[in-house]
Amino acid sequence: MRKKAQMAEAVLFFRDGGVCKEMLYPEFEAVLDGVVNLPEFAEQQIGAAFVVIDPRLAIRAAVFFYLDFHEDGAADSGWNIPLRMLAERGGRGPDLGSGPIRMVCRSQCPVSWHQMHLWDPLMKGERNHLALMRDRVKRNGLGLIIEEEATPSLPAERLQIAAEDRWYTRGPFAEPREAAPAMAGVPQYVEGQLKKDLQDSEQARARLSDEIARLHQLLKDERGRAEALIAQQAAQTECFRRIREELSEQLRRNERKGQAGIDAMRDRFELEAQARITAVAEDFQKRIVALQDELLRRDERQLTAETEIARLEAVCADLREQIGRKTLERLADQGMVFVVYHPGAGQLTVPVDDIEPYQQNPQAYAAAKCSVSLEHYRQWLDHYMRPACQASMLNGSRCGIPVDRIDLPMQFVPGVSDCCSRHRGAARRTGS
Questions:
Q1: Residue 185 in this model has a pLDDT that exceeds 70
Q2: Each residue's pLDDT tens digit, 69-123
Q3: Could you count the other beta carbons within 10 Å of the beta carbon of residue 164?
Q4: Which CATH architecture has domain 193-331?
Q5: Where are the domains of the chain?
Q6: Number of Cβ atoms within 10 Å of the Cβ of 338
Q7: pLDDT at 148
Q8: Which neighbouring-strand residues pair with 340?
Q9: Are strands 346-350 and 91-95 parallel, antiparallel or unpaired?
Q10: What are phi and psi for residue 405, nearest 5 degrees?
Q11: Around Cβ 4, how many Cβ atoms within 10 Å?
């Protein structure tokens, strides 16, 4: 089964004015996790770009950032830039083949505290970084699955053409739309409040993400301290062992001075050694218990933070849905209608309440309007687009003889309407 083309994420590295390396985003995560090193970038600060690529190998978003590498080619473990979040919130950039992209760089950054870790690409001359990225992605050196066949377009007379700045649908990487002039008289305070709440939720989510990263680092530090304490305990235990051996040797030398003195010294030594070992063990046990309690509290705080992030994400989704729904209702109240065309159904006016089910499955919507099932509609549509006999020959191929086109789905009979006279008769005899 052929795989479907999807949006892809990749990272391009720049050096000496050109793209020197490219990799998919999962490979870049392996570099960040220390699983893979890049010796060619050892002891350097490299400029890179996180790009989102559509199924036609066109760049839709780009984030230009710096990444430091250690002497062994390992990436800086403290690097922490939310590339995907920045790409979704980026500003308007140039058109690289599929409309204006979303771009984030030092001079255009939606989150001010990440600005120092970004850089500005050259956009003119022979070293135009955006042109270099576009050409490198078009080569498809990453082996992406691309969309080979263009989507069938509707006839121009059946389309309602919008203004040029509204040709791009709103998606995860689309440019925010400006308010339509027709809506100038609509009160804006409700939409403004929704957008403010959405922005506040995203800022709170960013702060919680930073807090989780800080807690992870503290947890790592505490675990390192615990390991250091365990190593210190092992060293002291070894020291006590050597002291015991020295005292034992001393006891053997003093055996000639009297058995009574030796017994007393041995007992005293055992008591002192046991007391010291017990005290040290209790101290270390208290420290370990305290560290475990601290780790438990940090885990609870992390769980609380993750729960809050999930809640904020749900709030953001609700706000986005409310904004989109209110916009459609306002347009409908102002007299705008949404008209689509489907073969067999003709021009359909889609009510506001039917926008969401129509977007989920346009063909099912058209089939319902034609009073047939989705499978029946699809069979009729294949016949309508290619009116030829679909009967199978002995060699496995299709007959292919042209047949009369049935214009309405309800008049179409599978196995009869899409067969020539010879195979139609055979199908009727088989059915009878």
A1: no
A2: 999 999 999 999 999 999 999 999 999 888 999 999 999 999 999 999 999 999 8
A3: 7
A4: Orthogonal Bundle (1.10)
A5: 8-147, 193-331, 340-431
A6: 16
A7: 66
A8: 348
A9: unpaired
A10: -80, 130
A11: 8
